[in-house]
C-alpha cells in the first residue's frame, strides 16, 4: 500500500480527500493537524488514519514528520484559504502559505525522498481575466487580486522552481471554486445554505444577508476535486500545472436562487456592505481540457446535487444543536 500524507487533513478538502483514499483502499493515510485543529470533519475516520500533530510553519517538525513517515504521495492542502481574511491579515496569509510550502519542500529534500507532491493551487491566481480570455487555460496570465491570490501564485511558482532546481516531483493543481458538505460557513454556498437552514429552524428571521451576487464562478463538487488530486499524482506529469474545473460558470445570485428554491420558507434578500471585498474577480470559468487529456478526469456530480447535499448538511448540523429536536 502507498503511504499518503495529507497536510490540512482536518479541513474541508483534506477530510474529503482522506475519505476518498480510504474508499479506494490502496493507501495508508497519514494526516497533519495542529493541536488547536477541530476534528469534527474526520471524527468518523479517526480509527482508520494515522493523525500526526505538527505545524507546517515549523521547519524542524516538518523534517521529523517527513523523515519518519517516508510518504509516497504528499497532498499539500494546508493553507489560510479564505480570501476575505487575507485582506484583514495579509502578512499572516503570505507567511503561513509560503513558509509552510518551503518547509515541506526542504524536508523532502533533506530526507532524499522520491515521493510525488501535489500542490493545491487556486484559480484565484488568474485574478483579473479579460472577456476574450474565457475559458481560462493554464497559459493565461496571472493577475492576482487579493493577498490570498498572491500567496497562491507564490506557492505555484515555488513548486515550479523546486522542480526546475532540484528535480522535485511536483504536480500543481489550480482548483477552481469547490463546495459541498463540510464547507466552512464563511464560504458563499455554505454560508447561503447555513442561513437558509437557520431560518427553516426558526433560529433567524427570514432575511438573508449577502455580498456581491453578480460575480460568476466555476463550481465543482469537492468529492470530484479530491478525486482529481489523486489522479494528478497517479497520472499527472511532473512539473505540470492543471486546472480542475467544470468549464461552466454560474452567477452567485443564481446559486442563491437554487438554494432558496430547495426550501419552503419565504426569504427576503438584503445586501450587507460588510460582505463586499475591496476588489473582486468578476468571472472565473476554466478549461479542464489539459487535465482531462492527461488523466481522464472530469466532474461527475451535478451542481444541483452538490447544493442539495450542502443544504442537508447544514440542516442536520443545526438540528443536532437544537434542544427542541
The fraction of residues in strands falls at 15-25%
Unreliable spans:
none
Question: Which structural class fits the helix and strand makeup?
Answer: alpha/beta
- What global shape is seen? globular
Listing every helix as H and every strand as E from the N terminus to the C terminus, the arrangement reads EHEEHEHHEHEEHEEEHEEHEHH
The overall pLDDT, averaged over residues, is 93
* CATH homologous group name of the largest domain: NAD(P)-binding Rossmann-like Domain
CATH topology of the largest domain: Rossmann fold
* Number of domain modules: 2
Query: Under the CATH scheme, which architecture of the largest domain would be assigned?
Result: 3-Layer(aba) Sandwich
> What gap, in angstroms, lies between the N and C termini?
44 Å
The biggest beta sheet reads:
7 strands, parallel
Q: State the total count of DSSP E strands.
A: 13
Question: Strand order within the widest sheet?
Answer: 3-2-1-4-5-6-11
List the helices and strands and how they pair.
Layout lengths: L1 E6 L4 H13 L2 E7 L16 E4 L5 H11 L3 E4 L6 H6 L1 H22 L4 E7 L24 H20 L3 E6 L2 E2 L8 H13 L6 E4 L5 E2 L2 E2 H14 L5 E4 L5 E2 H10 L6 E4 L17 H7 L7 H19 L4
Parallel strand pairs: 1-2, 1-4, 2-3, 4-5, 5-6, 6-11, 7-10, 8-13
Antiparallel strand pairs: 9-12
Task: Explain what the structure shows.
The model has no long low-confidence stretch (mean pLDDT 93). The protein has a 7-stranded parallel β-sheet, with helices on both faces. The protein has 2 domains: 203 residues, Rossmann fold, CATH 3.40.50; 90 residues, UDP-galactose 4-epimerase, domain 1. The chain contains 10 helices and 13 strands. The longest helix is centred in the N-terminal third of the chain and has 22 residues.
Amino acid at each position: 500500500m502507498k503511504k499518503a500524507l495529507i497536510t490540512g487533513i482536518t479541513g474541508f478538502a483534506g477530510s474529503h480527500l482522506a475519505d476518498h483514499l480510504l474508499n479506494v483502499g490502496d493507501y495508508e493515510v497519514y494526516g497533519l493537524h495542529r493541536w488547536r485543529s477541530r476534528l469534527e470533519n474526520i471524527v468518523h475516520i479517526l480509527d482508520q488514519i494515522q493523525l500526526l500533530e505538527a505545524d507546517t510553519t515549523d521547519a524542524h517538525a516538518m523534517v521529523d514528520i517527513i523523515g519518519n513517515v517516508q510518504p509516497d504521495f504528499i497532498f499539500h492542502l494546508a493553507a489560510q484559504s479564505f480570501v476575505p481574511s487575507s485582506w484583514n491579515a495579509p502578512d499572516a496569509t503570505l507567511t503561513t502559505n509560503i513558509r509552510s510550502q518551503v518547509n515541506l519542500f526542504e524536508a523532502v529534500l533533506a530526507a532524499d525522498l522520491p515521493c510525488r507532491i501535489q500542490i493545491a493551487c487556486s484559480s484565484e491566481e488568474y485574478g483579473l481575466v479579460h472577456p476574450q480570455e474565457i475559458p481560462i487555460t493554464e497559459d493565461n496570465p496571472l493577475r492576482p487580486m487579493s493577498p490570498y491570490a498572491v500567496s497562491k501564485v507564490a506557492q505555484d511558482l515555488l513548486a515550479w522552481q523546486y522542480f526546475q532546481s532540484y528535480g522535485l516531483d511536483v504536480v500543481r493543481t489550480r482548483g477552481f471554486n469547490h463546495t459541498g458538505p463540510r464547507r466552512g460557513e464563511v464560504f458563499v454556498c455554505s454560508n447561503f445554505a447555513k442561513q437558509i437552514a437557520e431560518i427553516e429552524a426558526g433560529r433567524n428571521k427570514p432575511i438573508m444577508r449577502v455580498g456581491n451576487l453578480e460575480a460568476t464562478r466555476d463550481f465543482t463538487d469537492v468529492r470530484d476535486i479530491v478525486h482529481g488530486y489523486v489522479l494528478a499524482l497517479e497520472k499527472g506529469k511532473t512539473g505540470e500545472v492543471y486546472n480542475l474545473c467544470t468549464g461552466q460558470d454560474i452567477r452567485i445570485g443564481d446559486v442563491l436562487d437554487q438554494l432558496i428554491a430547495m426550501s419552503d420558507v419565504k426569504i427576503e434578500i438584503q445586501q450587507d456592505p460588510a460582505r463586499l471585498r475591496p476588489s473582486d474577480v468578476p468571472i472565473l470559468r476554466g478549461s479542464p481540457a489539459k487535465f482531462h487529456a492527461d488523466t481522464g478526469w472530469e466532474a461527475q456530480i451535478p451542481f444541483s446535487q452538490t447544493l442539495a447535499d450542502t443544504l442537508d448538511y447544514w440542516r442536520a448540523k443545526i438540528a443536532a444543536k437544537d434542544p427542541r429536536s
